[in-house]
């Protein structure tokens, strides 16, 4: 299992569109992906779970990847979040 | 106690006993209050397309004094759809609009008797239940995120989805949505 902390920079937080983008990107990897917020741990491959977490801008989250392609998945996740998830 | 709440309670109690249409009873002492009122729930609609649904919701929002311009509101809905579909899962969609023409935070619910075409969803199931979120520009970030999170959490609850799909009572539907928006 590998993990890394990263801060959400999306001005509107992790709302529907960026949540969907993150989940669909992580869905390409076979490993388990978990996003850990100060309040909860959510399935990083579930757009609904990510939206329900209501993660606001500026929140530091920890992304955990556990499985065969965990290193690639984590790198992709961190890059995606740092780049603003397309926003 | 308002008359509509008494009617809602009576209906919901009857529905609770109906195994084909389960609905949690409205609390006898304190019916769920929130942004959704019975007048903000549209039933028996027949939307052929996504844009038909959004257009009807835009008009209804103006009729209720929630927004000032139906075209501007429609544009806000479409702008959001262009970023990515708001069609979710299990026949639900959560379109949302942020606009200066919106005067207050509001949630409109519409149920269509037919599958709504041209509305891409996450699971491929056609949309039948629309929960539209309207947020004024100056509250966009915080309230928008909170309400979306609450609705996403609600949609993960199979009981919530079932109750909304099965209910044909505007007060019960409003109460159910409000319960999850608190």
Automatic annotation (TrEMBL), chain A:
Pfam families: PTS-HPr. Gene3D superfamilies: HPr-like. Transmembrane segments: none annotated. The keyword Nucleus does not apply. Keywords: Cytoplasm, Phosphotransferase system. It comes from the Bacteria. This is HPr family phosphocarrier protein. The lineage of its organism: Bacteria, Bacillati, Actinomycetota, Coriobacteriia, Coriobacteriales.
């Amino acid at each position: 299992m590998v993990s890394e902390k990263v801060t959400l920079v999306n001005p509107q937080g992790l709302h529907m569109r960026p949540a969907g983008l993150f989940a669909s990107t992580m869905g390409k990897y076979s490993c388990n992906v978990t996003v850990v917020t100060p309040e909860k741990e959510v399935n990083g491959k579930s757009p609904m779970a990510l939206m329900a977490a209501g993660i606001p801008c500026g929140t530091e989250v920890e992304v955990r990847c556990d499985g065969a392609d965990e290193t690639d998945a984590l790198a992709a996740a961190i890059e995606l979040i740092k780049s603003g998830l397309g926003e | 106690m308002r008359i509509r709440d008494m009617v809602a309670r009576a209906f919901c109690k009857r529905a609770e006993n109906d195994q084909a249409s389960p609905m949690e009873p409205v609390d006898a002492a304190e019916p769920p209050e929130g942004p959704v009122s019975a007048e903000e729930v549209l039933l028996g609609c027949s939307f052929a397309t996504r844009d038909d649904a959004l257009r009807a919701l835009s008009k209804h929002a103006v009729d209720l004094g929630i927004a000032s311009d139906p075209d501007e509101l429609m544009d806000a809905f479409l702008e959001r759809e262009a970023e990515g579909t708001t069609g979710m899962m299990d026949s639900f969609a959560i379109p949302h609009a942020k606009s200066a023409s919106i005067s207050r935070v509001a949630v409109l619910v519409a149920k269509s008797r037919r599958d709504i075409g041209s509305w891409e969803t996450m699971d491929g199931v056609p949309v039948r239940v629309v929960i539209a979120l309207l947020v004024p520009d100056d509250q966009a970030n915080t309230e928008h995120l909170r309400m979306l999170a609450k609705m996403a959490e609600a949609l993960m609850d199979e009981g919530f989805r079932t109750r909304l799909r099965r209910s044909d009572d505007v007060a019960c539907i409003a109460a159910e949505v409000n319960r999850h928006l608190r």
